[in-house]
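re: that chain from earlier
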Amino acid sequence: MTSADKIGNKAIIIPRDTKRYFEPRFVTLLPRQTVTWINRDTVPHSLTSGEPENQVTGRVFNTGPISAGSLATVTVGPNIGNISYFCTLHPSERGTIVVIPKHEESLTDSERLELLDSVFTLNNPSEVHAIRSALERHFDPNTLIRIADPDLLRVHNKILTIVFWDLSGFSAVCESLKAHPVLVVEFLKEYYTHATNIIHKYNGVLDKFIGDGIMAFFGFHSRDGDENKHAVDAVNAAIELKDSFEKTKKEWIDIWKKKLGMILSL
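^ sequence. v structure.
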């Protein structure tokens, strides 16, 4: 990829069909500046402003076919905002031109936040749902709800209770089961599921899984003056997970014994 040293006149590599976004995904321009696409692919591409889902295309620009090795240049108008575009021949390939009022180094912190908010505001319900579904697989759902809260932009001072769980003897079990990794993975999945449900039950936030360890914190959702409550929640969650794990452990030790005919313990 090649690009100019200053804002504007940026050359963009056209991606192959396997990529979802052009590189760079966001091109920043001033009003009435130009952007140039260079087709580094081996097949033609045709870029148009708009979204493939709503069938509204070409209102701002339409390059027509760009053959392999060729260029296409577009000059943006005076209006500030985002211009989404995609390849009409390969609609999964997309990008965004961001037209800003002045050079980036001249933006204040407030203006930068407003710009980020405008760039990442999604109006397509299906895309919003897809992004949220992807985030839910990796982030605590209670935290996701709070992400949309504008109050989070302020600095907060909170007292938290942090809890770590770790399985005693798990490394030795893994060594015994190294020829049967599926048995280890399925056990961990069940253990993680129980832990996640219990942490959420007591208003905790699951921070991460670390091998057979779990880290969570309590108090993020608490109001001022509730420090004692979230400490009690943390203790109750730890006790319940310990008790529930005893049943899970016994069931899996029985499974391991039947599968392998060996003595294992946690």
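The longest helix spans residues 227-260.
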